[in-house]
Fold these 3 entries.
Entry 1:
Amino acid sequence: MTPETLPDGIAILDFGGQYCHLIARRVREMNVYSEILPSDATRAELESFGSVMNVKGVIFSGSPSSVKAEDALILDPNILEMGVPVLGLCYGIQLIAEMHGGELAKAREYGMTKAYIDEPVGVLEGLDACEQVWMSHGDTVFEAPEGFRVMAHTDRAPVAAMRHDEKQIWGLQWHPEVVHTERGGEMLRNYVFNVCGCEPNWRPLDRVEEAIRTIKDAVGDGKAIIALSGGVDSSVAAALAGKALEGNLMAVHVDHGLMREKEPAEVEAAFKDRGLNLVVVDARGRFLRRLEGVVDPEEKRKIIGEEFIRVFEEEARRFGVEYLIQGTIYPDRIESGLTRNSETIKTHHNVGGLPLQMMFKEVIDPLGDLYKDEVRGLGERLGLPEEIVWRQPFPGPGLAVRIIGPITEAKLEALRKADAIVCAEVEAHPFRDRLWQYFAVMTNTKTTGVKGDERAYGWTIAVRLVESVDAMTASFSKAPWEVLERISNRIGNEVPGVTKVVYDITHKPPSTIEWE
Ligand code: XMP
């Protein structure tokens, strides 16, 4: 390709922040190419990107660490002289300040914050005097370095945004890439189009073809096995693998006893005639035995991951399978800390928790770079039924991470009933379309209630209804009161052993979507 036919693009240096990939994604959504590079990428490396894209700007991401730490990640200073506009976000602005002699100190700011815009120019052009932004940082820039101007402040951060007087160096302390920063999209658009001058001339590749090719190249004439939970991700991965491998794919649905009401039967009905050689394995007893008395969520995930792989091994051996295909998607990988510099929040059972190398020649993640909405788009292109494509996500370890404390048959049974009520009531109401996930949680708390005229001492069920675009951030839903009331009444009346129903009103962050 000649430079004229190359797409304009933004390089993102990954300092390990949770939202690094969200930044890339926001840029790509504007039809501008973006690539993520490790934080130690040099100016020369960025310039050699000239064969892939015209690098029109460089963004420095956030980071879990401090610029003041001894082993702080640093930046090739020559990048600042490359002649393209740079934008530091969170750790990025602190790094710029530190490199230019600004004043920083430990001072935490967290959550939704009011930012007062002192200079609405460049990246902040068109913004109001006060904007809602999302903050998550432990260090704060207290004085801008010489040659820089303060563009915004908050009640706690005197330098919440800054720019260089002459050079194209910009910094924001907040995260414009997360939805809680209300006009974050405009800020990034200002940077990409007005400051960097990008043309929106990038079109994503056909993901279906790309994914099928990936699977075919990896498996060749071999045989592969896929874990089909019935969720969106594994269903789409199975449909892709089915197309790529035809008769050489075996789909295994493991009933680990931690599924929702009627789920294994529904999965079997939906997939049995789709040419995937579907096998349903009843492994309820062995999973529940191993989980007996286990309280720690990471331990639960680990046990489930291990048991899963054992079941697979047994099936794979019977069919002489060498490859494992998974429906792991991008946020699972980030949150499992598998990208360089990022911190582990949860080990998702189908990623880090599995001793995968043991028996398969290779593990293939055809959806490993995609976000949930992209996976859904792919499912639609593949012609999967709507109920599957738009099914709410369900974690691999299933109800195990929605039962706090030890898992028992009695808790499982009550949770299944309560969850079915939540689903039925939500699905009967149009506000369901706003929700990303809706489910019940069995807390480990017993409370006193009255049933009939008698004192009862029973479980507390929590209801979690969240809105989200990609599970990286989420908001609790301001659900209609009448729906919450019906859910509460029905659970109280229909689920034995439950005396209290509570509604979870925490956003992610600081919470996660699941309770464990
Ligand atoms: P959290 O709870 O981390 O969840 O906000 C983000 C998304 O991931 C799902 N989730 C899991 N999926 N194995 C999975 O396959 C897991 O261990 C797991 N934990 C959470 C969760 O339902 C949400 O959609």
Entry 2:
Amino acid sequence: MSTDAPKLSPVEGFKDESRYLRGTIPDELKADTDHFGKGDLQLLKFHGTYQQDDRDSRKSPGGKSYSFMIRTRIPSGVLTSEQFLAHLDLCDEFGNSTMKLTTRQAIQLHGVPKTDLKTTIARINECGLSTLAACGDVNRNVMSCPAKRSDSIHDEIQSTALALAMHLAPRTISYRQCWLVDDETGEKQLLQDEKAPEEVEPIYGKTYLPRKFKIGIALPEDNCIDVYTQDLGLIAVVRDGKLIGYNFTVGGGMGTTPSAAKTFPALGKRMAFVKSEDVLKVAEAVVIVQRDHGNREDRKIARLKYLIADWGVEKFRAAVEKQFGAPLDDCTEDDVHGFDDHMGWQDQGDGKWSYGLNVENGRLSDGPERQWKACFREICGELKPEIRLTSHQSAILCDIAPDDKPKLIEILKKHGIPVSEEVSTVRRWSMACVGLPTCGLSITESERALPGMIDELEAPLAKLGLDKDAFTIRMTGCPNGCARPYNADIGLVGKAKGKYTVFVGGALLGNRLNYIFRDLVPAEEVTSTLVSVFTAYKNYRQESETLGDFCARVGKEELEKLCTASA
Ligand code: SF4
């Protein structure tokens, strides 16, 4: 036997032996414990849930206290008022009474105990949504610009997102067996196990993908979903008012491990133009090439971006063409050139209005000053808007009749919710991942730290006359980069307890990576560091230059000098 056989990562073994993601989840669900064993822990992610423990109480006498994060997959972030209300009910009944709107247009519930896991997932399915493939080594929630418009283009890209989500969803019956039936349906399981892998999972096979896979669809004038951060990005190509296809980008991804030089964030590379009718098949080919050639030995370098870096985009494209069975055309010149966060009132063009509501860091909770949940309950109950989640952790309330516009604002004000027009520009363009206390990978604070920092930045920005300048500030509690910090104008990435790496020089448009300006900056010095950058920008920027463009132009060393000169 050859000794050269690659040593696969342990997760590959769990997947291989899982019988298409089933593992022993049904048995463990019945066991009288508050957590799952090692193998099932990995499989649970494919089902849309992560086992977590409250990091704040780790050192308490009772030890680790386990609960579950449950993520609902919502293509393009489109859901009904009833579905939104169902999630609010679930977070109150089984979760920690808060709900998180994510950076990928999904919803997360936190703090669900193991005893309520099955009921919660079943209830999400009852309302017509699913958690399957919200996490795990598969294609995750497919993003697209969520704006509701009467033009056909928005409808078409949102339909394409839904079609991709359906086409690339795992087809195993294990999800149903684990969560949606009263007891194990052994006969069906046997049927599935006896089939060949290509029959059960024709796209993924037995061991699914080497790592997570993300897809997003953008319009050239509106890159609100950050297309260049996606493993597979689609940029719409429109001619004479008709959507004729997409420019495909491949190999974007934010995660990195600072201690491992082999890891890096990357922007997607433009690969080829794909006609609308071929989108599903070419996307499938991209997935299959990554399935067969992505790294399964080292999960740190298993994302598509590492295969692209290794092969180059031409070799990758040739492999995709071979899998697809025909040559592809080169990308057209169409590229992203605008970004709309869809906040405030927007005319849908059908006599109705949409209202983009800024939800700070996507967290919905009821407190003494702001009652987010009560507010959404009243809006959903009275106005019944369709709801669309944005990639900036906010919500768009759609189909508001002109006569109901004052009513909506009245409900917001009644519950202490700031209308988007009153939210400062810096807060509106900021976002933070969950971080502590729930994320198991978090090194330091994120969502709980950023609002206070934004408070401290508002006055200096106003004093500098920069309070209307739009630039992105994105914070994460670790370098995994879930809030896409590496292409933001400013990225704040947790590096050690209470310390952040400060990145500058990205772009609002999301098409440029930033660079490290300062490392290991204590939390209490982050805002003064940023104010020094803002001051240098104010003093030395060129006409019409954005903050990100300025930082990218001058570079780290010059920026240091300009900050010192501006002090
Ligand atoms: Fe957790 Fe890190 Fe992702 Fe934040 S970036 S949610 S801390 S894994």
Entry 3:
Amino acid sequence: MRTLIKDGTVITASDTFAADVWIENSKIVALTDPSQRAALGTADTVVDAKGQYVIPGGIDCHTHMELPFGGTTASDDFDTGTVAAAFGGTTTIVDFAIQSKGSSMRAGLDAWHAKAEGKAAIDYGFHMIMTEANPSTLEEMAGLVREGVTSFKMFMAYPGVFLVDDQQIFRAMLKAGELGALITMHAEIGLPIDVLVQRALSEGHTAPVYHALTRPEVAEATGTERAIALAEMAKVPVYMVHLSAQRALERVMEARDRGLPAYAETCPQYLFCSEDDLRGEPGNEWKGAGYVCTPPLRPAHHHDHLWRGLRNYDLQVVATDHCPFCMKDQKELGKGDFSKIPNGMPGVETRLHLLWDGVRDGRISMNRFVEITSTAPAKIFGMYGKKGCIAVGADADVVVWDPAREKVLGKDTLHMRVDYSPFEGRKVIGTPSAVLSRGELIIQDDRWVAKKQQGRGQFLRRGTFGL
Ligand code: URP
Ligand code: ZN
Ligand code: ZN
């Protein structure tokens, strides 16, 4: 099966050039000068990319399909969530499997395989959330790494649920160093946050905005500094997930300036939404519940700092932390008590659309756009070469990006299984016109065109940390 993407402009993390992209079955086999096409024979499928960009499929290295949280479960599963991802130009996700406290990581990983297998429409990998780093779980890490689960998330937040103490984090980092695995960190210090939450509730503050007011920026900055200090002591790299704020970013910058391998991702909600969204509307404070995620949305002046971080390579990745809950029945669990609003926002489908706005207004280049949405996560999380590039031998995960096509974002124009959109009515310019996953054309002109949908995605055994 031969596919040709013709007449497009290929954008990689480093280069921009006119080329035809030839695909044999699931792999890219040649990038050729379009003027030589006649000599190269024919293709079974031809995708016309004239006037458009040809970019590597997006990699969203932070999703939570079917995550149990706060008495409910994230509303997208591996079927609906990965289909939505593909419509937005993302062809790989890395989701978080969870070790339940008192149980093994093996059991957690098996549970996540069962959720994804036969359902995912695009390729997927797993990180493992470690809720305990005791001798037996530390022992388990090697087996997981051998199976391609090469990164672990630990939490300084959520006491009693996910929180692990510094000694456990440090032990896991040492072990990760031996194995070439990567520790990723949720770096808000949760113990004082819980006190602020209890105090706010006892004072009668119940509205969604108190989610932000009880999780101040300093809690994230301190956690970030502490995580980096632990990694420095353990002599290992560390990756901060969902970094939201200026002071946390400054901690990462200081570490990087000292030559430490500290990496960080931010998310579209921290670039495009703010604490004002959490306040809801006059007479409808509750609307803010749709914007409750953790770390919380910050005042809008943080946006410029994060964009600068992306431009200057202090932030390496934009992932989504896709963790949708419907307003009805799910976010509603926190009506009258902001601390019971399930944490998370939908986003897996809109990441590229939103970030392209950053290209259009000159905040980042097209090459940087490709780097932060695909190439850098592929490199950091052990997928590069197979994913994250337009290169001979790579998986043909390719998006044809039409920079002129408009789309209005909203719950009815998007595919995520959630009853609202944080970006309802926002017009974006630039959207995928075709999406290929391992050489198969799966989406064309906003229609799913592949024969199979559920279960066509494959589990990705990722490599160890290679940077
Ligand atoms: O609000 C969020 N981020 N929900 C998902 C859990 C996490 O901490 O990533
Ligand atoms: Zn987190
Ligand atoms: Zn998350």
